[in-house]
């Protein structure tokens, strides 16, 4: 067998191994989804049984139980829903444990997990698809490049190496691009989010009510923050603290303003106090910051337009202003040549 045939055979065997590994990943994904569905059904059955028992107990309540229900109706209604939602949310927001070992851990580093969160991709199913796509493309692209280009000798090795690198990094480049666009969208939505939150606080709503309304009613204008707020509200309803439920929202943007808003909401939820005046000052600071950013962009555009004007308008101006003079000089030289 020639070296080229041996190289193609080795790539084929590697592709077969990666295909078997991808099949194992899909099988684990199916088992995980089946187990999650079974857990959800079990928790739903327990919740229905608890609600039935509560309905039976409410039919003839004692004096102390009736007073407790009247004093704290939200806590009694929140407990079953939180118990049912907690395991499902915790399972959905964490990648499978087997991704923390072996080759999968190298393909899904801590940086990749943060990028998946910032890109809005499911940490459980998205992480497995991310790892599988990197592994499959890292083997499929070299094979495809060798089959199409048909290089020989060292060229085949170089083509395989570049194909392996591009296939390994292509999913990460896609996730980085998506995360970057979402971060820019968060920066654009943050001033509107602060203004709406201040408006809802001004009409007498609490922090919880304001966040619920922002997540449910303003999702069309807060496309990224609305979904993240809905997820944070679900985590808070399942028993997490405000700081824990806002952790994903704080890591969503690399901008310090989002972290400052989250810290303000956590402090108000923990210690209480008025939040309308700090939000007003923060909104003014955001507007000033955006105005400064716009001025900076305008300054850059002015510098760029100077080069465009030099390349386009200056030749036209030279033709218009100096053209008649050049024509007169040319006529004079022609007449002198004719006379001579």
TrEMBL record:
Name of one Pfam family that matches: T2SSF
Domain Type II secretion system protein GspF stretches: 193-320
Main location: membrane
Domain of life: Bacteria
Record localization: Cell membrane
Record's keyword annotation contains Transmembrane: yes
Transmembrane segments: 6-27, 128-150, 156-175, 307-330
Cellular component terms per the entry's GO annotation: plasma membrane
The keyword Transmembrane helix is assigned to this record: yes
Keywords for the protein's UniProt record, in alphabetical order: Cell membrane, Membrane, Transmembrane, Transmembrane helix
Membrane topology designation: Multi-pass membrane protein
InterPro entries, per database record: T2SS_GspF_dom
PANTHER family tied to this protein: INTEGRAL MEMBRANE PROTEIN-RELATED, PILUS ASSEMBLE PROTEIN
Protein name: Type II secretion system F family protein
Organism of this sequence: Corticibacter populi
Upper classification of the organism: Bacteria, Pseudomonadati, Pseudomonadota, Betaproteobacteria, Burkholderiales
């Amino acid at each position: 067998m020639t070296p080229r045939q041996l190289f193609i055979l080795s790539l084929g065997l590697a592709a077969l191994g990666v295909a078997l590994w991808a099949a194992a990943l899909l099988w684990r994904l199916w088992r995980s989804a089946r187990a999650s569905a079974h857990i959800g059904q079990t928790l739903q059955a327990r919740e229905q049984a608890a609600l039935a028992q509560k309905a039976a107990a409410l039919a003839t309540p004692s004096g102390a139980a009736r007073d407790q229900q009247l004093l704290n109706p939200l806590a009694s209604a929140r407990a079953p829903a939180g118990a049912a939602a907690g395991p499902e949310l915790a399972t959905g927001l964490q990648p499978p444990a087997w991704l923390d070992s072996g080759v999968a851990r190298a393909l899904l580093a801590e940086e990749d997990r943060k990028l998946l969160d910032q890109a809005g991709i499911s940490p459980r199913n998205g992480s497995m698809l991310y790892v599988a796509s990197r592994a499959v493309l890292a083997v499929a692209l070299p094979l495809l490049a060798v089959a199409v280009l048909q290089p020989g000798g060292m060229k085949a090795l170089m083509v395989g190496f570049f194909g392996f690198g591009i296939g390994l990094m292509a999913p990460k480049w896609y996730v980085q691009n998506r995360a970057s666009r979402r971060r820019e969208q968060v920066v654009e939505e943050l001033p509107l989010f602060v203004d709406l939150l201040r408006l809802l606080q001004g009409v007498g709503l609490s922090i919880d009510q304001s966040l619920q309304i922002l997540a449910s009613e303003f999702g069309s204008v807060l496309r990224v923050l609305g979904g993240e707020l809905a997820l944070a509200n679900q985590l808070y309803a399942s028993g997490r603290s405000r700081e824990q439920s806002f952790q994903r929202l704080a890591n969503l943007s690399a901008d310090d303003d989002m972290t400052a808003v989250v810290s303000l909401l956590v402090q108000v939820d923990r210690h209480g106090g008025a939040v309308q005046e700090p939000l007003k000052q923060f909104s003014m600071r955001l507007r000033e910051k955006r105005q400064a950013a716009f001025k900076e962009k305008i300054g850059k555009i002015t510098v760029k337009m100077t080069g465009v004007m030099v390349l386009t308008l200056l030749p036209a101006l030279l033709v218009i202003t100096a053209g008649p003079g050049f024509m007169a000089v040319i006529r004079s030289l022609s007449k002198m040549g004719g006379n001579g």
